[in-house]
Amino acid sequence: MTSSAQETALACIDGIQPLLSAWTRTIFDFGETAWREYQSAAWYVDRLKREGFSVEEGSGGMPTAFCAHWTNGDGPVIGMYGEYDAVPGNCQDAATVKRARPGLGVEAGGHTDPHSGLGIGSLGGLLAAKAAMLEHGIKGTLRFTGEPAEKVRGSKPIHAAKGYYDGLAGMISFHPFYMLPLCNTARWDTHCGAAYAMIYRFVCDEPENWGRAASDGAPIPQAHSAVRAPGANDALMMMYMASKALRDSMLTHQGGWSISEAILTAGQATADNLPAGLAEIQYMIRVPTIRMAEQVTAVLDRNAEAAARMSGCRYERHWVSKSRPGLANHAMADITYAALSTVGAPQWNEEARAIAREVQVNAGGEATENPFIDELERLITPREAEAILRRDLPPSQVNSTSDDYTDMSWHAPTSRFYVARPALRAPKGHTYPAWVMNALGGIPATIDPMVTCAAKTVALTALRLLEDKAARDAAMGEFVERTGGGVGGSNWIAPLCDYEAPINFRWPEYVTTPRGRDWWIPAASTA
């Protein structure tokens, strides 16, 4: 049964639903990527200030992060957050056909998860909780953090290390469904794992010493065939190939894990008789345990050293993320799943289904009466989802998959819940291309049901924590027990972040030139 304050919150969300829809599309169209979400962060800061929140901009030394507060007197502090980073190479319009957003090429950023709906869903819950607190005189404080660069697990380890999650009675973490059985449910035992991300930078700053024995002493090499240091590009390629070749030997073949890489810089595009002076490659290690992350890092360090020696370079390692595995909290999962059960799973109307049928046809499939996956409109209890998730995991594996909300879970009782996003049922033998999910995440008729459901679930969870001391105490009691005494307890894992925000690397971004606003890879190059 909902309280009168919760009923107020639900009515508030129904009233502002058109705004939530418009706001979701705004962030979707910004499509800004990790560490470069300038417009998105500025939009949130402006919106929160207009709603009466005090906002710290650039929190944790991250220009596109923030921390907002609103208080209604002494009482519990409840945490929520928004993400808004997109992914390079996924620029898709909110349309039923494959096409980039106007004025851009496909290489630009686009929302895949979509974090555009994630952030606005959480924001809607925040604003509804505030409205209910005001109307019903509920004491307490709401804290809302802006979390950039989730795709590289960037901001939350930094915010955690700098104390932004301390003092919370509960943290509410929402994510659009991204794999079955985690559709409309909350995580139970098996939370996301650890992740390390780092950039290896190769620098060739003494190329003159490479061929000293063979040099004739000429101040300038007399031919393009003269001996020269291989340089940073060669170091990067040797690092890339060595790490690929040794990947099977980095970890045991059990307990799901992955290692991904992305080249950020490669020699500044020079093509002359000069060695490339700078090259950078980023690695992301997603593993169940910190020990596994440390083991892979040791191998990568050796590879980087060997590649640098062979190519006449030196190397540097710069951290992007050192993120802890997640900590379960059954009391929080129960509170949030009860809220989700009250709201009900999202439902898609005939307008949304008609749009989905258009997408089916345009993506090479056939229109069906019900184009969406059946599970999208059903709830699944946390225990049921857990049992299905565990079928493919060895008993010894405690954590699985990847997301940096896990750092929050070591500072406050944390619930992690999922709401279905629009996803098409694929006929046998057919796989829909990536643009389909991306497009459905931007079209209002298809994404709004998720955003509305998430906002209501966030609001009801927050108000339950504020109003129900017994539920709040149960969540905190479990947190203290699992950590062996709370923050600093015998089983507590301290923040791993011992680095500053990696904001000064060549992260892909939008640029303004005499040609206008464009992605760093010009749209005209793919016309």
TrEMBL record:
Keywords of this entry: Hydrolase
UniProt GO BP: folic acid catabolic process
Stored InterPro entries: Bact_exopeptidase_dim_dom, Peptidase_M20/M20A_hydrolases
Lineage: Bacteria, Pseudomonadati, Pseudomonadota, Alphaproteobacteria, Hyphomicrobiales
Species this chain originates from: Mesorhizobium hawassense
Name under which the protein is recorded: Amidohydrolase
GO MF term (any one): dipeptidase activity
Entry GO CC: cytoplasm
